[in-house]
From TrEMBL:
<protein>
    <submittedName>
        <fullName>Mercuric resistance operon regulatory protein</fullName>
    </submittedName>
</protein>
<keyword id="KW-0238">DNA-binding</keyword>
<keyword id="KW-0805">Transcription regulation</keyword>
<dbReference type="InterPro" id="IPR000551">
    <property type="entry name" value="MerR-type_HTH_dom"/>
</dbReference>
<keyword id="KW-0804">Transcription</keyword>
<feature type="domain" description="HTH merR-type">
    <location>
        <begin position="1"/>
        <end position="68"/>
    </location>
</feature>
<dbReference type="Pfam" id="PF13411">
    <property type="entry name" value="MerR_1"/>
</dbReference>
<keyword id="KW-0678">Repressor</keyword>
<dbReference type="GO" id="GO:0003700">
    <property type="term" value="F:DNA-binding transcription factor activity"/>
</dbReference>
<dbReference type="InterPro" id="IPR009061">
    <property type="entry name" value="DNA-bd_dom_put_sf"/>
</dbReference>
<dbReference type="InterPro" id="IPR047057">
    <property type="entry name" value="MerR_fam"/>
</dbReference>
<dbReference type="GO" id="GO:0003677">
    <property type="term" value="F:DNA binding"/>
</dbReference>
Length: 118
């Protein structure tokens, strides 16, 4: 399929598709007329990328785990490991934010809330 059809079917802009291609997340073949042609599997790869992004994975993390465009996606065991690691990272960040919130709350009643740490 050409880039316009892929954009329509995936809900992504042509610029986003070109960006993903430049980063190696998807691949196209060039036709003699210079047009990009994407295999049907590209929709599956884009769905994988978009789902991973919605789950909090950065493009850099996705690139690391996504095989070269056109190869098989990571297996269920590897994906489960990635999700466990992401959950652990989120839990750590929640703990940091809770600690920050607690510190801010204790400073509310101080005469100089931004003074020397207690």
């Amino acid at each position: 399929m050409q880039i316009g059809e892929l954009a329509e079917r995936s809900g992504l802009s042509r610029d986003t598709l070109r960006f993903y291609e430049k980063r190696g997340l998807i691949a196209s073949l060039r036709r003699p007329n210079g047009y990009r042609h994407y295999p049907d599997e590209t929709l599956m790869l884009l769905n994988y990328v978009r789902t991973a992004q919605r789950l909090g994975f950065s493009l850099a993390e996705i690139e690391t785990e996504l095989p070269a465009a056109g190869e098989n996606l990571p297996g269920a065991a590897r994906l489960a490991d990635l999700l466990r690691h992401k959950i652990s990272s989120i839990d750590s960040r929640i703990a940091e934010l809770q600690s920050l919130r607690d510190d801010l709350a204790t400073r509310l009643d101080l005469a100089c809330p931004l003074g020397v740490e207690n």
